[in-house]
TrEMBL record:
It comes from the Eukaryota. Residues 6-127 form the Gfo/Idh/MocA-like oxidoreductase N-terminal domain. PANTHER family: BILIVERDIN REDUCTASE A, BINDING ROSSMANN FOLD OXIDOREDUCTASE, PUTATIVE (AFU_ORTHOLOGUE AFUA_4G00560)-RELATED. Residues 392-411 are annotated as: Disordered. This is 1-carboxy-3-chloro-3,4-dihydroxycyclo hexa-1,5-diene dehydrogenase isoform X3. Gene3D superfamilies: Dihydrodipicolinate Reductase, domain 2, NAD(P)-binding Rossmann-like Domain. The lineage of its organism: Eukaryota, Metazoa, Chordata, Craniata, Vertebrata.
């Protein structure tokens, strides 16, 4: 049996912690051997969870690039604008890379990452997790099997969710384009990736897009509202009140997302959440933030062969990220409502429902896109393990089975 793939987690925040859970479930396949994060709380939490030796725990990714290679792979889960530099530097060290989306925030940086990984021969996987969602995979299998004939049109909708948008894109990390990226890249790169995936080999040749920021602007601040929800006399009438989104949840014992994000350096409880809302970004009035990213956007695409696609993203929805898709083909139509897939056959006029296996182990089963996250890490760890099993032994200091930097094309 192969020894577990050794990974260093670069950015021990929400995503880094999630992917690392795979090592707790499958210690025979994945071992966390290093961590880099400037936040002591995040580092310590992951270090204790995975028994990482002190000498492999750092407060910045540069320390890993400066050291002799001591693992097989890295999970790069740093903020959006901090993907390119560690990806390029660590690919040059010969680490296989699981890189959070967006791959980078400029085309030039994406190209540099891809070229470096090809030159150094490391595996590069970008975390477009939805491609690993069992429903999404089933839709692709149905299309490829010819169930709806030639694909003619794809209609895809992303409901972001009213309080999710307020949390991430008005108060949170992705609110401001200069600090992270525009909403279509930060949020909907998953969806554009899916449309491209379903379009198969056909290239997109024309695109038009319009978007705007609505509602979360100073002129919509209700009369009498305060700058912070904890001081606000009209908070009870506000759907976006931080008290409702965070304090009410923690009072009911809910300490996971979005509450966990608010207390960056402590375990969330009523006291720590209250303090964070008094002083931190998540307690701000949604009408007084430095947000500038779009709350709604449409994209129209034309692909080779006349296939058209339309995509809409909107903040103001009840459902959170539960995408809806319908794909029209020459022989039938496939629809997906976030819960089940239905294929209508034009010839027989019969609808067939398709279910998928949604079971995944441990914390990955606890909602969000955990199921897709599990399959993504599973695929990456398998790819790294298989790549080693196929290489001939060399004097690689980490693996006796070879240094990927010299023999494998990036994927
Ligand atoms: N694939 C998905 O579906 C998905 C979902 C959410 C977020 N993301 C992406 O994942 C990335 C991380 O998001 P997150 O929600 O985990 O954010 P986060 O803020 O929880 O985690 C980022 C971590 O990077 C650390 N960091 C900052 N500078 C660093 C440095 N120099 N060296 C090492 N670590 C450093 C931060 O301290 C923080 O702990 C972002 O690019 C985000 O867009 C992807």
């Amino acid at each position: 049996m192969l020894s577990p793939v050794k990974v260093i987690v670069v950015g021990a925040g929400s995503r880094g912690e999630t992917y690392s859970d795979f090592a707790s479930i499958h210690p025979d396949r994945l071992q966390v051997v290093g961590i880099a994060d400037p936040r002591l709380f995040a580092r310590k939490k992951l270090q204790e969870c995975h028994n990482v030796p002190e000498e492999n725990v750092f407060d910045d990714w540069h320390c890993i690039a400066e050291r002799e290679k001591f693992a097989d792979a890295v999970f790069i889960c740093t903020p959006d604008r901090l993907h390119k530099e560690p990806a390029v530097a660590l690919a040059r060290k010969g680490y296989h890379i699981l890189l959070e989306k967006p791959m980078a925030v400029t085309l030039e940086d994406c190209t540099e990452i891809a070229e470096t990984c090809i030159q150094t021969g490391v595996i590069l996987a970008v975390c477009h997790v939805l491609q690993y969602d069992p429903f999404i995979r089933k839709i692709k299998v149905l299309i490829d099997s010819g169930a709806i004939g030639d694909v003619i049109h794809i209609q895809h909708f992303e409901p972001v969710g009213f309080y999710h948008f307020a949390h991430s894109f008005v108060r949170g990390n992705w609110r401001n384009e200069a600090e992270s990226s525009f909403a279509l890249l930060a949020k909907s790169c998953h969806d554009l990736d899916l449309i491209n995936h379903w379009a198969g080999k056909r290239r997109c040749i024309k695109v038009s897009s319009f978007g705007s920021l609505n509602h979360f602007q100073k002129e919509n601040k209700p009369p009498g509202a305060a700058s912070r929800c904890l001081d606000c006399s009209v908070e009870t009438d506000c759907a976006y009140s931080a008290k409702k989104i965070y304090l009410d949840r923690v009072k009911k014992g809910w300490v996971r997302w979005p509450v966990s994000v608010v207390c960056r350096n402590s375990i969330p409880d009523i006291e720590s959440v209250t303090e964070a809302l008094k002083t931190g970004p998540y307690g701000r009035c949604v009408y007084e933030c430095d947000n500038d990213v779009c709350s709604n956007q449409v994209v129209n695409m034309e692909f080779e062969g006349g296939l058209t696609a339309s995509f809409s993203m909107v903040a103001f929805t009840e459902e959170i990220c539960l995408r809806k898709t319908s794909i029209q083909g020459s022989k039938g139509e496939v629809t997906y409502d976030g819960h089940e897939i239905k294929v209508f056959d034009f010839l027989t006029q019969i609808s067939t429902k398709h279910t998928v296996d949604l079971s995944v182990p441990g914390s990955f089963s606890k909602g969000g896109h955990g199921i897709a996250d599990y399959h993504l890490v599973d695929a990456f760890v398998s790819a790294v393990a298989v790549s080693y099993s196929e290489w001939k032994p060399t004097d690689d200091p980490v693996r006796s089975k070879g240094n990927p930097g010299e023999s494998q094309a990036g994927v």
